[in-house]
Amino acid sequence: MSGSKHALVARLNDGDATNLDHGLSLGLSADEFERACGLIGGRVPTKVELGCISAMWSEHCSYKSSRVHLGRFPTKGPRVLVGPGENAGVVDVEPDVADGWAVAFKVESHNHPSYIEPYQGAATGVGGILRDVFTMGARPIAAMNLLRFGSPEHPKTPGLVDGVVRGIGGYGNCFGVPTVWSQAEFDPAYDKNILVNAFALGVVRKDRIWKGNASGVGNPVMYVGAKTGRDGIHGATMASDSFSDSKETARPTVQVGDPFKEKLLLEACLELFERGAELLVGIQDMGAAGLTSSAFEMASRAGSGVSLDLDQVPARETAMTAYEIMLSESQERMLLVARAGKEGEVRAIFEKWDLDCTTIGVVTDDGFVRLRKDGIEVCCLPAEPLADEAPRYKRPLTAPVPVPLPPGALKALTAKPADAIRNVLLSPSMAPKSWIYRQYDREVGAGTIFDGTFAAAALVRLPQTKRGIAMALVCDSRQCFLDPKEGAKRAVVEGVARVSAVGALPVGVTDCLNYGSPLIPEQMAQLSLGVDGISEACTALDVPVVSGNVSLYNQTDAHAVLPTPTIGVVGVVDDLDKVAPAMALKPGDVLVRLGAPPTTLEGSLACWQAARGQGILRPLDLEAAGALCTLTRELRVGGHVLDAWPVTAGGLAQTLFSVALGNELPVRSTLPDGEDFLVSYLGEDRLCFVVAVDNQGVPAVQARAARAGIEAVVLGAVGVTPQFSLHDHLGDRSFSADFATLVAEAEGVVGAIVHSGSRPKA
Amino acid sequence: MAVTVITFPGSNCDRDCVAGVESAGGLARRVFHKEHELPTDTDAVILPGGFSFGDYLRCGAMAARSHIMPAVRRFADAGGPVLGICNGFQIMCEAQMLPGALLRNAEGRFVCEEVELDIVGDSPLLVGYQPGDGMVVPVAHGEGNYTADDETLAMLERERRVAFRYRDLDTFGNATVNGARRGIAGIIGGPKRNILGMMPHPERRASTMLGGDDGLPLLLALVGAASSLTPSSKRSA
């Protein structure tokens, strides 16, 4: 028993001491319990109140360990309409059109639930992020995901991959949002903590953005959507704790998704938004911590209070207690504040879509959230302190010490260079993800120009315009492990490079910071350093962070995941007619490398395969990277190149293989004189791009690159031989494989992982 | 000339169909499933893709019994052009406007990919294609595995009511993409061959910017078919 708990118990009577124990069992510390008592005049909170407090002050809802760091992000910019803190960030994508489009987007984690129940965990992760976006008034037009699984050989991996992919597809396909990007990798560090990060982007007229405000005393508080059940109770608390082997039985806390209900909710909400402020004051989805967080946050934002009658909440099960109603994380529910007297018109809209819509309370001016059940007040807590004055901790930080590469660590690689290439191309992390993409409806909405199966980024049309929205969701977790700051910086650069490669100007970043335990100083330091890296890169590349999410406790016992600050970058193409279609190369088209070649294998995937977790990541020159992105973007929108790809994980070899796969044409590449075969094909220490050019267009591209002071060398061409082959200058070292055979092998990798496991139930 | 696109709860391609018809130069508007009548100026109807009523029962089963469907059936029986895409095709089968049924994909998974089709049927809605033409369009479904009894299949073949056939067939002659018998991707029905149900999505291939326009001739025919296929009840009115 801690000292502070001793002191506290001594002052409490028996009943209050029981409540203290209850609070502690919900994850509150003794200090937090005392702080809570202080907020309500020294009284001991009731059990319902403790449930609300522990949920609001959970790591998941309050960011109590990370908030002191998040303030370092650059969040301002001329295009930013809504920054971090709302349900999603909103960025202006038509600054030249007065009532034009903005895009709302965010990425969020659903890691813990997806490990426990992969299908429902992943599905409701998608459902949650879609609600975050359409709560802002935006119709979702694209979804992406970033997934991290354990070793393919781990017995749980096949079922987890299968369940997560089915869950994402099952939700998004039915809801009707195209899932245009999936970045999935495998590493034993995720054996017991997978990552499921879901991103959604929607379009909203910039003068029609909605926020979660409960303002206007006397306005009705209305509950819409699905009924409340006992599912997901304590979900936010679960996601704020680490796993131990005994916790794999936490299944009842995983929510169950109903994408059909969510689709109805979307259409009903958009109809309501159409009617505007005449009917609606504010709206917020019930996500983590359900009715609790939506009620407290909406009241807090408006500086008001709310009084709710929990007997009016539509319940799916009988005899639900106030505690259960407040902490349920049943899906597909929204809380809204309507204009007084307009309840009937609001209800008519939801009834058209066969959804429950009930007035459950009223906006007050006393600053309190008051809850009544069976006519008795069971909760009276101040809204703002709970929502905004959660404890903030400056956790101890101990920066991890990089492990230099031991001498001779790469001997095996250099001894058999062709094998080194092959091991990268056919590794589960690098192998094509067609098996996953195929299960996602990538085109519903009829706006997908290309998805991310092989393109540098996904591109969707901005409705009714010539503009396109490019997006990518990335992170090189291995590099973030070697150097948490440099790795996070590079994740931003990769995202910016990807949208630039499809001709888009990057306009906003969203992040999902997946780390281990904030209570372990080395793991907490990884987060802090990650924030530094993201901030440095976003500042240098002039792209603001507009939304994000933090997921901590991604560890089991003492083993944490690789630090994974997932970065979503969104960009705008002003004129789609100027961007050539992706993956439309013809035989004889030339491949040119833009940018200086790598200088080392250290920090690369190949190096990781040979010496896991070892090596020093060289610092990336952000100015040079920015100039290279700008050049590539200009070449792409200027029509000087047919297509472009940044060189990322797996190096040039991997990028050239993606080009070959996407275009269904083999590549033959030869390095310029003086370059080392393995370093140039597998090194990842510097940013470079591959661009595809029409045969006649090469001199023009080289001239433009020269004017920008950027190296541009011809590597080879597509479709000129039946082999996929990579050579050094003299042909001393090479990798060559029959293209059709290599493609079949690579395309089989991911499916084989799933089919190696026992067949899961449908 | 106006195309009526039915919005069932859970339809998610209804807006895409409106956009597709507009690309083909037609006018389109959405009509909610709770209506009992089609707008009087309806010249063609589309039952769009999606997951009507969540498809938690058999796909299309609930939608086939919704308020608007008797009116759609009367329109079709009178010779009016009706196109069912994906979930719309499933609804048509459940409503017995077309024979057969769509089972779960043979592989047991949702599949979204481009497929190559041979256009083999005889219908006014296919006049935009030449004999021997193919088309490349995407499918996106979990239940596109067309099946019917042998007698029905023989009738469909004999009467040239198989509209489209997937080019990729397995050794049994079924579609590799979903297991559909005889590779059937779409079929034709109605008194004037005016009902077309298909699993692939022509509305997603109505513009070169969005991956191709192989679906456009079909949408153009739907828009144009209004004149030749206007329901007799309406013509006399």
Protein described:
The complex is a heterodimer of chains A (762) and B (237). Chain A is of the alpha+beta class and 762 residues long. Chain A contains 27 helices and 28 strands. The model of chain A has no long low-confidence stretch (mean pLDDT 93). In chain A, 37% of the residues lie in helices and 22% in strands. Chain B is of the alpha/beta class. Chain B has helices spanning 14-23, 69-77, 87-94, 150-158, 216-229, 232-236; strands at residues 2-7, 27-32, 42-47, 82-85, 101-103, 111-119, 134-141, 145-147, 162-166, 184-189, 195-198. A nine-stranded mixed β-sheet of chain B has the order 2-1-3-4-11-10-9-6-7, sandwiched between helices. In chain B, helix 1 links the parallel strand 1 (2-7) and strand 2 (27-32). Residues 230-237 of chain B have low confidence and may be disordered. Chain A binds chain B through residues 166, 169-170, 173-176, 258-261, 263-264, 352-354, 437-450, 461, 576-577, 762, and chain B through 9-10, 12-13, 15-16, 19-20, 32, 34, 49-51, 53-56, 108-113, 138, 140, 142, 201, 203-204, 206, 209-211.
Question: What number is the mean pLDDT of chain B?
Answer: 93
Helix content of chain A: 25-40%
Main pleated-sheet profile of chain B: 9 strands, mixed
Shape field of chain B: globular
CA radius of gyration of chain B is 16 Å
Average predicted confidence as pLDDT of chain A: 93
Could you say which structural class the secondary elements and strand pairing of chain B correspond to? alpha/beta
Q: What percentage of the residues of chain B does DSSP assign to strands (E)?
A: 25-35%
Strand order of the largest sheet of chain B: 2-1-3-4-11-10-9-6-7
**Beta-strand level of the residues of chain A, as a percent range?**
15-25%
Structural class of chain A: alpha+beta
Strand elements of chain A, count: 28
Largest sheet of chain A: 7 strands, mixed
Strand order of the largest sheet of chain A: 8-10-7-11-9-12-13
Intertermini distance of chain B:
16 Å
* Total beta-strand segments of chain B: 11
Q: How far apart, in Å, are the first and last alpha carbons of chain A? A: 47 Å
Low-confidence stretches of chain A: none
Helix count of chain B, per DSSP? Answer: 6
Q: How much helicity do the residues of chain B have?
A: 10-25%
